Request: fold
Amino acid sequence: MATILVVEDESAILELLTINLKHAGHNVLPARDAESAIATINNVIPDLVLLDWMLPGRSGIALAKQLRENKRTRPLPIIFLTARSEEHDKVAALETGVDDYVTKPFSPRELAARIKAVLRRRAPHVTDDAVLIGDLRLDPATHRVTGKGQLLELGPVEFRLLHYLMTHPERVHSRKQLLDEVWGDHVFVEERTVDVHIRRLRMALSPSGSEHLIETVRGSGYRLSQMS
Ligand code: CA
Reply:
């Protein structure tokens, strides 16, 4: 469900992580050092980074700092992986703004739970949790949307768009933000495309009378709101 960049120089651990994450349904992008991690990120922004502390060349902490300084990568959820357990390391890691910290050796189950918790908090639209707003319910696991109990027919883009809006309600999203979050960044689509899919989304929601939840905010973008 999520695309996870794993930065780890030890082959055995990288392999173990890859197997576990794939088993949990995630897509894994492996990197063995900070340079190849950056090269990967320049191509595709992952949903989360699992970052080893001790890497050859630039350290994990230096990479985390760099990611936090760049506007494009600043919101990236990061979980630190490290063999160190000393308190001052944890403080240093948390000061760079990482989201969580897992000490090796870790159980795959614990790691999966930490990843899920961070994604829930930081990127709820990539989890499989069902979302309920008003009479509208979206279930990513079954790919179903219902409004007042009635099954609604949505295309794949409209489904992702609604999932994103429902997991980030009451906020105004610009067309550019929606393109980045729903279509994926580095995808060159005209901003007008968003309007087309919003129109289709409203049409798909109309049998249940939920289309009014999707508001146009003049000059800014779109918002899913229950307020009006
Ligand atoms: Ca290492």
